[in-house]
Amino acid sequence: MKFIDIKDRVNLNNCLSKLEVNAVPLWGSLTPVSLIEHLITTIEYTNGKKITSCNLTPEQIEERKQLVIYSDTELPMGIKTPVSKDDPAATTFENLRDAIAALNEELDAFEKYFETEGITSVHPGFGELNYEDWCIFHSKHFTHHFRQFGVW
């Protein structure tokens, strides 16, 4: 399975440029703007702007990491997460261009946050993740949503 590389910002932004404001998802209820806002929120949990916790046992965390992070497993259609929006129509950004620009700013902050050696941040389902783990997760997560809108 091939996933988008979130460190390849040229390719990432090429995919984002294919997203049209009135696009209808192949599954789910996100709009293009609410999709970008969802990705922004997820990135904010990995760049120090938002903090969460993980209430799983170390054994559960390791099992989940093996299943999702350290495998070629795709995220399933319709998956619900702790940062899923209840109302995808309620968006902060007025247009797609501004939302994409904000996403790129959060990705910049993500890269800067992980410049500190040994730093981690918490995923609610996978516990503490380092930079490489987060890159794998984000790559799978972005790929999942880009497929949802047919841009990957």
What key attributes describe this structure?
5 helices; 2 strands; mainly alpha; two-stranded antiparallel ribbon; 152 residues; single chain
What does this structure look like?
This protein has one domain (9-21, 45-148). Helix 2 (32-44) runs parallel beside helix 4 (96-113). The protein starts with 8 loop residues before the first helix and ends with a helix. With 152 residues, the protein is mainly α. The model has no long low-confidence stretch (mean pLDDT 93). It has five helices and two strands; from the N terminus they run H-H-H-H-E-E-H. Strand 1 and strand 2 (127-129) form a beta hairpin.
Strand content: under 5%
Radius of gyration: 15 Å
- Count of separate DSSP helical elements: 5
Uncertain segments are: none
| Whole-number mean pLDDT | 93
Strand line-up of the largest beta sheet: 1-2
